[in-house]
Amino acid sequence: MPLHRPRRNRKSAAIRDLCRETTLSAADLVYPLFVHADGVDTALESLPGQTRWSLDGLVTEARRAWDLGVRAVVLFPKIEDALKTSDGREVRNGDGLIPEALRRLRAACPDLCLITDVALDPYSSDGHDGIVAPDGRILNDETVAVLCEQALTQARAGADVIAPSDMMDGRVGAIRAALDGEGFSEVSILSYTAKYASAFYGPFRGALDSAPKAGDKRTYQMDPGNCREALRELELDEAEGADMVMVKPAGPYLDIVRDVREATNLPVAAYQVSGEYLALHAAAQSGWLDLEAAALESLVGIRRAGADLIFTYFAPAAAGWLAR
Ligand code: PBG
User: Is residue 73 a part of any domain in this protein?
Assistant: First the structure.
């Protein structure tokens, strides 16, 4: 007879609950929301179950998520072509789509944590996160100056957390200084610290019509083969004053989530990106995968790897499933 029987700790739901090492709750989740200036809510073909919301629809959806226990949203704008320029100057418009969305959300849902994305791609006629030089290079320092203005525009409109996703060098420190210089010392910075040049962003770019017009993002987003480089980015972001750090995508990069977790005492976020969400949906649609079970398992896996918080399009659905 075996002396050790690990199965004793699995013999009932109550004991399994007592022994569980990693938990998942609605309060761990951040819900990414797409918004446009149109008055109609448009279902997104590239992201089943997700919508490009009108401002009214956005507020209703954020409230619905809040009522399910989701405490944070991150906003992504679909900017009209006429407002897209090579310098992304619309990011400075205090009456633009994102500032208006922030004010409406704050009024309707005062305690909801409002996170904003800092990067030029939705505003760029080139579809890049930074300013593109005539020879195709992405200009780092010129871009950082615009990103600081974008962050200030978002802070003035009520953002709680600024999340730079652009991967320019030095942007966390520069944004911190810009925010502090205008009295926004309480506005947090969640840095996309290790953001990889991933094929899994495809459905997102479809949702915002933000794919690069030429070239790709490999001169600023990280090479999928690298892990020490993520730790170097982490050191820099910590030194520059990041309050939280992120790894993105999540599922294919769980080793990086673990490495970053072990190397920092800051809260670690992971972004289960559009392609990860779509892949699970498509597999479930085939009839061979149970969406609820697979989605919850993928989220627990991301938490188990070391993420404190998870950006996921499953946020309201998962909150509903977890409440049962
Ligand atoms: C843009 C940005 C991207 C995502 C979040 N912010 C796309 C990109 O870098 O091209 C992707 C999110 C997703 O795929 O769900 N700065």
Answer: yes
| Span between the terminal Cα atoms of the chain, in Å | 39
Residue 313 in any domain: the answer is yes
* Cβ–Cβ < 8 Å for 114, 102: yes
What pLDDT score was predicted for residue 83?
98
Upstream peptide bond of 164 is cis (omega within 30 degrees of 0)? no
Structural domain containing residue 227: 26-322
Is 232 among the domain residues? yes
Cα 65 to Cα 112: distance, rounded to the nearest angstrom: 10
Task: Give the Å distance between the CA of 201 and the centre of ligand 1.
Answer: 6
Name residues of the chain where pLDDT drops below 70.
none
Angle between helices 55-68 and 315-323 (to 10 degrees): 30
Q: How far is the CA of 6 from the centre of ligand 1 (A)?
A: 42
Q: Is residue 13 part of a domain?
A: no
| Structure confidence at residue 176 (pLDDT) | 98
* 130-154: pLDDT as tens digits: 999 999 999 999 999 999 999 999 9
Top mutation candidate among 201, 246, 313 for ligand 1, by most atoms within 8 Å of CB: 201
Residue pLDDT, tens place only, 224-255: 999 999 999 999 999 999 999 999 999 999 99
Domain count, the chain: 1
Residue 250 maps to which CATH number?
A: 3.20.20.70
Residue 305 tokens, joined: 């790897």
Kindly write down the DSSP assignment for every residue of 167-214, as one continuous string: --TTHHHHHHHHHHHTT-TTSEEEEEEEEB--GGGHHHHHHHT---SS
Per-residue model confidence as pLDDT tens digits over 41-58: 999 999 999 999 999 999
Q: Is the dihedral of CA 36, 161, 140, 272 positive or negative?
A: negative
Bridge pairing between strands 138-139 and 131-132: antiparallel
Question: What pLDDT, on the 0 to 100 scale, is given for residue 216?
Answer: 95
Query: How far, in Å, CA of 243 to CA of 169, rounded?
Result: 17
For residue 248, indicate whether it is catalytic. yes
- Residue 268: helix, strand or coil by DSSP? strand
